[in-house]
Each structure stands twice: as C-alpha cells, then as structure tokens.
Queue: 2 jobs
Job 1
Amino acid sequence: MRVILELLTDVLYAFGVPFYPAYEGQFTLEEKSLSLKIMQYFSNFIRSGNPNYPHEFSRRAPEFAAPWPDFVPRDGAESYKELSVLLPNRQGLKKADCSFWSKYIQSLKTSADEAKDGSQQKAKRRTS
C-alpha cells in the first residue's frame, strides 16, 4: 500500500520534497528553486536565529532570496513572506479576516462591560 504524502505546501518545500526521487517530474524548476530558498531561510534561522544570516549552506546556494522582513508588530500591518516563486515581502496577512474578530470581540467585550456596570448600578440603587 502506497502512502500519499499530503502536507501543507510550505512543509513540502521546507523539507525538500521536490528533490525526493519518488516525486520526480511533479515539481517545476521554479518550485525546486523555491524549495532551495525556503530551506535556505529555515536553515539560516535554525543556525543563527536570523533567516537572513548566510551560513555555509546559503553560500553554496545558486542565488540568494530576498531578505525576510523583521517582525515588527504594528497596527495590523505585520510583514510576512509570501511563499510563492518570487518570495515577495507583504504586509497584513489576512488582515480583513482577522479584523472581523478583533473588532467583534472588542465591541462584544465593551457591550458586556457596559451591561455589567449597568446591572451593578441598578443593584446599588435597590440596596440604598
């Protein structure tokens, strides 16, 4: 029985699956290049704590990938690396999806606090 490998795409590239003989012909040259770049970032990070720090593996790589952006928390505009062939830097991953929850939860919390305060004030009036 053959086991089918179903992993998230980034995991496939991070572990070099495009170079595994069982998957010969299933990945393009661009995808193999992407895999090398992702392995470069990961190995740099594991070695130094910085995905941009070039150590021995990176120096042997045929080309360097664009620098991974520093994570600097900002008001919903955190930088991230898009895992596509060109590996562009982007900002605000799923910002619209997350803003619903952050705004909704905040307004729900505010409403609950106001209701709680109102209930406590009514209770104080009754006991006075």
Job 2
Amino acid sequence: MKYLLCIAFLSAASLHAQVDFGQMSPNELAQYWLTNDCGVTDDGPAINQFLVAQVEAVEPLLIRAYQDGPGVDQIRQLEEQARMNFSVIQKALESGNDFGLSKEDLELARQQTVDEYVKAEREKFILGYRSQALLGLAAGGGEAGKKLLSEIASQEEQSTLSRTARYGLEKME
C-alpha cells in the first residue's frame, strides 16, 4: 500500500509546474514551503534562495507555523481527505489482493477504524508541518530561526522535532 501511495506522490510531483518564487509574497512563500516537500521536487534549491533573500519577512511566519501548527481549515481538509482515503483503502482490502503485505499486516489494516486512521493521519500532518517549519528556518538561515532551532535541538528528549532541529542546525553550518 505504501508503495502505491509513493508512486502516486511521485507521479504528481513529476507533473508539478515550475513555480516563480520571485512573484510570491513572504506569506505565500512560507505557505508553499510548509505544504510542499521541497526536498523531493525540483523546487528545493530555488525556494531556498528566496527563503534566504526574504528571511526577515518569512522567518517570523515559519516560527509562528512551528509554534501554532497548521490552521483549523487545513486540519479539517486533511481529515476529509483521510476519510476518503480510508474508504478507498478498505475497498482495496476487500478485493482480496494482498498488495505484498503479510497476513498480519492485512489483518491490522482491516481492523483499523476510520477514526483511528484519521487520528493517525492528523498527527502525522501536524508533525510534518511543524518539522517543515523548522527546516524552513534552517534554509532561511536567520538568527531568530537559528535560536529556536538551538532551543529545540538542546531538549533531552529524542523527539522527531528535536532531531529535525539538530539536522537543520547541521545544514546551517
């Protein structure tokens, strides 16, 4: 199943048109960064240049995005999409195809409820959004971003966000 989702994502990414970051406002640039995986598409190097050039305007937006996470509307849209995806997955599982999964994994997928699936997708989305904000701060290279990354990286817990912050600091050096 993950293989199919990866193929779908990569196919969509290949259809992605080149974006003119120079025409974007700081808010549009920050939102684009937060909602796209700029490490997978061809936009990575181009958008990084604009994050650096507009760091004073974009940095506070990325800090706020890290602190607040995605907005209520973004989460609602994600939940709606997750419910549709769950329905498609359950129909696929009913087809009898094993999709290369073990019997145990198939049984786990069949037993998962829509609420469990939506909750897991919501949590992944929020974590990804906040992580992307941290990576944007690292790409921009501003002082306030570096300070926040240092604070998060110094936390003793081995959370995804503290690891992301440490990675971002390494990239800044």
